[in-house]
Amino acid sequence: MRKNTHVRDEDKFMLCLPKSLRDRIAEAAKSNERSINNEIIAVLQHAYDQAAVTKYQTIVRSLARVDDMPPSLSPAKIDELERSGKLVEMKQDLKIEIAALVERIEDLDSDRDRIIARTERLKAIVENLDAAFHRS
C-alpha cells in the first residue's frame, strides 16, 4: 500500500556536495538571482541541452562530408579504385559512416524525448517548490 505523501516529498533528492562546490553554486545562484535549487536545475538543463546540440552538430558534420563526395564516380575511377583495392575499403567505410549516422540520429531523437520529459518534470518540481514557498 502506498503511503499518502505529498508530491514535494517524492521529488526530493538528497545530494552531497563538497563545500567548495556548494559555495560556487550559491555564488552563481546569487548572481543569477535564483535559488540554489533553481541554479542546479538550470545548469543541468543547459548540460543536457548542450549534449544534444553536440550530437546534432556531429550529424551535421557527417552530412557535410557526404555533400563533399561526388554524386557518382566515372567508370575509369571505379576501375582505378578496384585495381588498387580501395573500392572495397571505400564501400566498407561508407557502410560504417551510414550506420554511425543512423545511430546518431536515433540517439538524438531519444535524447530529445528525454530532455523534454526531464524539462517537464523539472518544471513541475519548481512549481511545487514555488507553491510550498508561498504557503510558508
Describe the structure.
The protein is elongated. The protein starts with 6 loop residues before the first helix and ends with a helix. It is mostly helical. The chain has one domain. 81% of the residues lie in helices and 0% in strands. The chain contains five helices and no strands. The protein has helices at 7-10, 19-31, 36-68, 75-84, 86-135.
Mean pLDDT, all residues: 77
What is the percent of helical residues? over 70%
Number of domains: 1
Task: Name the helix and strand elements from N-terminus to C-terminus, one letter apiece.
Answer: HHHHH
- As residue ranges, the low-confidence spans are none
Terminal Cα span: 30 Å
Give the count of helical stretches: 5
Q: Approximately how much beta-strand content do the residues carry?
A: under 5%
Tally of extended strands?
A: 0
Q: Quick one: overall form?
A: elongated
Q: How many whole angstroms does the radius of gyration measure?
A: 25 Å
Q: Please summarize the sheet with the most strands.
A: none
Based on secondary structure, the structural category is mainly alpha
Domain Arc-like DNA binding: 8-50
InterPro entries: Arc_DNA-bd_dom (IPR005569), Arc_rbn_hlx_hlx (IPR013321), Ribbon_hlx_hlx (IPR010985)
GO molecular function, one term: DNA binding
Organism: Rhodoblastus acidophilus
